[in-house]
């Protein structure tokens, strides 16, 4: 058991889990829930603004462990391939997972999760 862990340790572990079972990791990391103002306004928390409300997911949770930088960005991001669909099955290829579908406002929920990366400054 580790008492301390770095951003790189988390990225390495996430990427190794992705290699072991891509499907479960993609499903796990596309789940988000509507959160309250206390969570959404926490300065170290990464949330997703959608038309349906502010949502909180696993990437946001992991980022709270390390806090936000001066620009309010977390350190960890899930990087997806350009082929993505929204929760209404529209092709939103080219948008990031943090984008909204231009046709329905839905959240980009499925992309081919390529890897977990450190957010570059
Ligand atoms: Zn859509």
Shape: globular
Amount of helix: 25-40%
- Residue-averaged pLDDT, rounded? 87
- Note poorly predicted spans: none
How big is the Rg?
A: 14 Å
Total count of strands: 5
Q: Report the structural category.
A: alpha+beta
Measured between the Cα atoms of the first and last residue, the distance is 31 Å
Would you write up a description of this structure?
With 121 residues, the protein is an alpha+beta fold. The protein has one domain (7-118). The protein is 29% helix and 27% strand. It contains 4 helices and 5 strands, in the order ααβαββαββ. It has a 3-stranded antiparallel β-sheet. The chain is globular, with a radius of gyration of 14 Å. It binds zinc ion (ZN). The site of zinc ion (ZN) has 7 residues, from loops.
Write the layout of secondary structure elements.
Blueprint lengths: L6 H14 L1 H8 L2 E3 L2 H4 L7 E3 L2 E5 H9 L9 E11 L21 E11 L3
Antiparallel strand pairs: 1-3, 2-3, 4-5
This protein binds zinc ion (ZN).
The site of zinc ion has 7 residues, from loops.
């Amino acid at each position: 058991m580790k008492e301390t862990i770095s951003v790189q340790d988390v990225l390495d572990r996430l990427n190794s889990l992705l290699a072991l079972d891509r499907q479960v990791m993609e499903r796990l990391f596309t789940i988000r829930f509507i959160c309250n103002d206390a969570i959404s306004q926490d300065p170290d928390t990464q949330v997703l603004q959608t038309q349906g409300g502010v949502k909180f997911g696993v990437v946001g949770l992991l980022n709270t462990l390390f806090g936000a930088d001066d620009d309010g960005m977390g350190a960890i991001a899930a990087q997806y391939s350009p082929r993505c669909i929204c929760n209404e099955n529209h092709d939103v290829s080219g948008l990031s997972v943090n984008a909204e579908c231009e046709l329905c406002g839905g959240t980009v929920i499925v992309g081919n999760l390529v890897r977990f990366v450190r957010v570059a400054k």
